[in-house]
Amino acid sequence: MKYLTHSARKFQIPKSLPSEATDTTIPNKTQNGGHVASLGTKSQNSNTNPVRTAVTCGFLALFLALLGPVTPGLASSPAPAPAPAPADAEASYQLGVSLMLQDKHDEAIAHFDKAVALAPDNSEYHRALGDAHGLVAVHASKLHALGHAKKCKAALEKAVALDPNNMQARISLVLFYIHVPGIAGGSDKKGWKQVEEIEKLDPALGWRARVIACMADKRHAEARALLDAKLASDPDCYFTLSQIGRLAYETKTDTDGGIAALQRALQLQLTPDQTSPRHARVQYWLGALHERNKDKSSARAAYEAALALSPGMKEAKTALAKLK
C-alpha cells in the first residue's frame, strides 16, 4: 500500500489490511499491573477483547500479526487508571471494528471518533482511530491523504501519551514516522526513538520492533542479520521464518531460501484464532515466490490457500487473476 501517492521512499507503506491481523497472545505488564493477550501491551483502559483489538490495526496488521509469544517485560511507572469507558463508547468502538473487518474504513472512523469523544482518556480508542485514518489515507487522493495522515499521527501520539505501555500504538508510530515524509509528520529520528523506547519497556518485543523498523526503513541487511541470529537460537520462531520469507519476497533475492522458511512457518502448530490471518499472509508471499520460480501450479495453490483463509486479501485476488 502507499500512504500517499509520492515518489519518495518513505511513502511505501506495508501491504496489509485489517483482515490480515490476528490475536497473537503477547503478554505484557499494563499500568495497573495486570497482563493482557493482544499483539502487544493493550491499554489498561480498554474493555475490548484481544481479537477485536487486533483486527483494527492498520500499520500493525501485517507485522504484529506475525509476532510470536514473548515474555513479559518491564513497564513504565503505574499511572492512575481512568474511569471505565461508558457502554455506548465501547459499542461505538465495536461498530468501528466491525466496519474495519469489512474494509469500510471511512465509516469506521465516524464510530471511533464517537468512542474517543465519549471516552477521551481511552488509549486504545485513540489507537484504533489513528490506524483507521492511516488505512483511509492509503486509498485517498493526495489532498485528502495528507489530512488523514496528520490525523493518524495525532491519534497515535495521543494513544501513547495516555498509555506509554500501549505497544500497538508505539509500533504503529514507528511505521508511521519511518514511512511518511516530513510534510505529513514523518521523521526517521522519531521512528527509531520509538524503537528504543519499546526496547526499554520490553526487550523481547523491542527486538521485533527493531526488525520491523529495519524492514520499513529498507535496512534489509541489518534486518537479515537480526533474523539469522535469532534463527540460530530458535529455528521454529514464526516471526523469524515469516520475515525471512518476506525479505526474499521484497528484495527479490534468495527465493529458494524464502520458500523454505515460509513452508516451515506453515508447518508450525498455531492456535485456531491465530491460524487464518497469519497463514494467509504467509501463503501470499509463498505464492509470489513460487511464481518468481515459474512454478505456476504451486503459486496458484498458495494464492488460493491465502484467499481461503482471508477472502478479502486484495493482493492475492489480483495475483491469482493475473496468473495464466
Explain the layout of strands and helices.
Elements lengths: L26 E3 L5 E3 L12 H6 L4 H4 L23 H15 L3 H14 L4 H17 L2 H21 L4 H13 L8 H14 L1 H14 L3 H14 L4 H14 L3 H13 L4 H21 L3 H14 L4 H9 L2
Helix pairs in contact: 3-4, 4-5, 5-6, 6-7, 7-8, 7-9, 8-9, 9-10, 10-11, 11-12, 11-13, 12-13, 13-14, 14-15
Identify the CATH architecture of the largest domain. Answer: Alpha Horseshoe
Nearest-integer average pLDDT:
76
In the sheet with the most strands, the strands line up as 1-2
CATH third-tier fold name of the largest domain? Serine Threonine Protein Phosphatase 5, Tetratricopeptide repeat
Report the span from N to C terminus: 24 Å
Q: Strand portion, in percent?
A: under 5%
Please give the count of helices.
Answer: 15
Q: Fraction of residues in helices?
A: 55-70%
Shape, per Cα inertia axes = globular
